[in-house]
Amino acid sequence: MSAPAAGSGGAPGRAAAGPPTWAPGETWRIVLSMTLICAAGAAILGGVYLGTERYAEASRQRNERAAVTELLSLGSDATVKEIRQFLSPARDAVIYRTGEAGADAGGNGTAEGAARAPREFVFALDGTLLRSGEIASANAGEKGLHPLGRIFVASRDGAPAGFVVEGEARGYKNRIRFFVALDREWRIAGVRVVEHEEDPGLGAEVATDWFQGQYVGRDLDGAANLDVTKDPMPEDWRDALRRRGTADDPAWTERYGPLRSRESDRPIYAVTGATISSRALTDGVRATILHFRRRWELLEPYLRAAGEGA
Amino acid sequence: MSQTILLPERPPGAVALLLNGIFGENPVFRLALSLCPAVAVTTTVANGIMLGVAVLLVQVLSSVTVALVRRGIHPRVRIPAYTIIIAVWVSAIDMTLAGYFPVLYAQVGLYVKLIVAFAIIISRLEVFASRMPLIPTFWDGLGMGLGFLFALVVIGAFRELLGSGAILGHVVTPEKPLLFFALPAGGFFTIGILMAFFNALERWKRGGKAPTAAGGGAHG
User: Fold this and answer.
1) Are A8 and A14 in contact (CB under 8 A)?
2) Is A48 in contact with B77 (Cβ distance < 8 A)?
3) Which of A308, A200, A141, A218 is nearest to A208 (CA)?
4) pTM higher than 0.90, yes or no?
5) What single DSSP character describes residue A214?
6) Helices and strands of chain A, counted as H and E runs
7) Torsion of CA A44, A45, A49, A50, to 10 degrees
8) ipTM given for this complex
9) CB-CB: which of A29, A34, A44 is closest to B92?
């Protein structure tokens, strides 16, 4: 400010009276003080992040694995293999990778999958295989690839036990990430929203067990024609869904099975006041299943040939 | 600039500082600071304990940090500096909880991030930690944190008992006596009732004279 020009106003720095003046040295001391504090804070946070991220990631994976076995009603003896799907950086090929992303952090029954070297299958968009083979590490060279979600292939005692496919939809506010579980006959075994930012009490209702319970039991044709209605949900069906818990248990099926088959031809009933969120999840589930069916038909023979089949 | 104005030259002892935080200047009942979270979270005892412990940790860590580096903080930018220090510790605790206690984190994760804006923490930094040596600051931070924890547990117990008829999730009465107390408005009534009780306690302790530090107005 005026400090270098004048020099006539006596000593620079703190004036005894009047408005405070800014000596140039003081400005630099403030800048230095704040910079040091920010740098120290950033260093501490960086250290804490490095120390805890491994555990946070491991617990995320445990939760996902628990969700997979729960959605397919599998016990802890089931084997779950993970296949990650990517779009190539030029968006002209789809890449599938097998093997654990963080093999050391795996939970139940992953030893079998981890023992095998990770593999990679690359398809052109028209479905021709461009290349396949082992890769050095499941995490190798993911930079620049666009993730298309993951597929969890479950098997028990060597027999296929279903799939869980990760999908994404554009919700009312932000993306909704969800899992769709398909049993061995390709019927929907469950839908679970794992990440969303919808409004509490409105859009967030799509993440509840009763709303997600509407999808269960629909076959591939039904899934291909999934739609949403704004009609009110019949009272008996609402009551049945609210009593259901996280999955169809035998007692529930015995009592409400007829209702389930009555409703499985009807559209999904939207959450009142949250049609956009309801439609987003429903459209996402439909698209995820249809995409997965096409991709799996393409990929399955190659997986089987490579000894990775379920 | 850093001359003590409100506080005596020789800081009080550890026991006096602890008691001051829990009773004499209890953040919620006496200073009336951080009432929003005190109302929002305390529908049950368990919620009160979890948030209270998190605040206790942040208060002690931030107070000690400020006491250690106070000579390096330029007085003109002390409030932004305090905010950064609080935010660093809140983020560190947030990440640690997410990593090591995922089940707990799923319940309190939302509230932990809010601690950055708690009035009680920054006010203790400004009033006490920026003017006092390390040891008394530690005891003051611990006392204030315990006081906040104590207040949340008392409010939570009051509301859970009257609102849900339970304590720590164990059902005490078959009916819900006064559901009103589980709602936000009931939270304000609870704090009002308890504040009156603590004022009366203070008045009785001083032999009938009105307390001086009562309810300084509701901040944050």
Assistant:
1) no
2) no
3) A200
4) no
5) G
6) 7, 10
7) -30
8) 0.73
9) A44
